[in-house]
Amino acid sequence: MSYDEVVESLRAIYDTRAPQRDATVKQPWKISERAAFLDRLRAIQARTLLEIGAGTGQDSLYFARAGLTVTAVDISPEQVAICRRKGLIAEVRDVLHLGFTPASFDAVWSMNCLLHVPDANLAEALRATRETLTPGGLAFLGMWGGVDSEGIMENDGRFFSFRTDEQILTAAAQHFEIVDFHTIDHGFRFQALTLARPAHSSHLRN
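The structure assignment produced for this chain is given below.
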C-alpha cells in the first residue's frame, strides 16, 4: 500500500473507533513513560509540544495540564473533534504533511504512530518530525515492534509496519541523537525512543 492509501484506510477506521478509544483507560506503564518524558522536558525547560498521532488527546491533555503549550494532530477528524472538545488545539494532519514552520516546538510526543508508516516512508517521517523541533528539542517515539513485518493485520484492518530494534535504531540515528532506548515486554515488544535534534545537524541526513 502507498502512504496515501494507508492514511485514508486508517482515517476511516479511527473515525469509527474514536468513542471507544476515548473511553479506554491508559495502562500504568504508558503513564510511567509519559511522566518520565515530562521530567526530561522540565529539565530542558521546554514550553511547547506537538503530539503526532494524538488520538483523542489523552496524552496531549496531560502535557497541557503540566503547563506546556500543546498542539495535537491526528489523521482522524472524529478524534480531532474529541481533542477540541477537551479544549486542546488540534488539527487534522499526518506526519508527512505537518505544515508547521520549522523549529516550532521544543518537544514532540508520538505514541504508536510511526508503526502505521510504511518502511518506504519512514525516513521522510523521521525527517519531518525532526524539522518541527527546535535545536536541542526532544522527541519521544514509542511503538510496538521487535520483528520485521509489514502489512494489514488480519481481524483488525489496520496497516502496521513493525521493525526490529536494530532497524528502528539505525533509522532514528540518521536524523536524531539517541538519548535513550529501552523496550517493554507486554506479550509484544514495545520500543521507546527518546531522541534529540542536535544543535548542529551537519552529520545527519537531510
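Interim note for the steering committee: The mean pLDDT is 95. The longest helix spans residues 3-22.
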